[in-house]
Specification:
By secondary structure, this protein is mostly helical. It has three helices and no strands. Helix 1 packs antiparallel against helix 2. The longest helix is centred in the first third of the chain and has 18 residues. The protein is flat and about 30 Å long. 0% of the residues are buried.
Length: 42
């Protein structure tokens, strides 16, 4: 289940990055600094 959510999130991130390159950079930075998201990635 967790892998499925990660896969969906990854695909959504790729699509979003293609449409909004500058915004995706901000979001990537925010995700890296967000402890909760980092916890989910591990």
């Amino acid at each position: 289940m967790k892998m499925l959510l990660i896969a969906i999130g990854f695909l959504a991130g790729v699509v979003f990055a293609n449409n909004y390159p500058t915004k995706s950079a901000e979001i990537a930075h925010w995700v890296e600094t967000n402890r909760f998201m980092v916890g989910l990635m591990r």
